[in-house]
Amino acid sequence: SQQGEEDPQALSIQEGENATMNCSYKTSINNLQWYRQNSGRGLVHLILIRSNEREKHSGRLRVTLDTSKKSSSLLITASRAADTASYFCATAYSGGYNKLIFGAGTRLAVHP
Amino acid sequence: ETGVTQSPTHLIKTRGQQVTLRCSSQSGHNTVSWYQQALGQGPQFIFQYYREEENGRGNFPPRFSGLQFPNYSSELNVNALELDDSALYLCASSPGLAGVGEQFFGPGTRLTVL
Question: CB 3.0-4.6 Å disulfide test: which of A22, A39, A41, A107 passes with A10?
């Protein structure tokens, strides 16, 4: 079974709008990572946030982590058509670093 | 610097056959992880190899096995293929254990089992 659950499953927006995706997980983690995947190809790492961090920024990306609620959000500001992809959160258990567990993903479509 | 590569790109097998997928890790990375991704789903962790030894395994039966070589490249072997094994198989390399930091993914091998 998958550790994380993304919400929504699919998101459709216009260029220039912001896109927010949420991720919930079940057990204590060391870190949470977000990845992007274009059309069934390999995944690309976007950002990693550690369990003792609450917010992190990278370019147009903003990630928050609330360990008390076991949830994270990814915000993409000023979306572009090129941001169209699937986005996945992945968690590393606090019990060890030997697994990275992915959620089912959010499929984002950005329309010109 | 060469990225993670996988071969073959696509593969068609029939039920009951065996398959070997290959992955070359990025230079300087000693860990390779394998994932299975069914259509419309997130990647499912199969196992991880660290310095040539299996170190961590997901909920996959023993017919999924692997190897890591001294140059840190890796193979995924699947015996007695079943229809549900049809998926995109992804490998990822990293300079340390999976979950510590960023993983670098290859483009994947699309396996179809008929």
Answer: A107
Supply the mean pLDDT for chain A: 91
Q: Is the CB of residue B6 less than 8 Å from the CB of residue B22?
A: yes
**Per the structure block, which two tokens stand in for A85?**
């992809």
| Residue B1: per-residue pLDDT | 57
Instruction: List, for residues A40-66, the tens digit of each pLDDT value.
Output: 788 999 999 999 999 999 999 999 999
Q: Do A40 and A106 contact (CB within 8 A), yes or no?
A: no
- ∠ Cα B83 B84 B85 (to 5°): 90
From residue A19, alpha-carbon distances to A12, A111, B46 in Å are 9, 12, 31
Which member of A40, A42, A88 has the closest CB to residue B42?
A: A88
Q: How far apart are CA A65 and CA A70, in angstroms?
A: 8
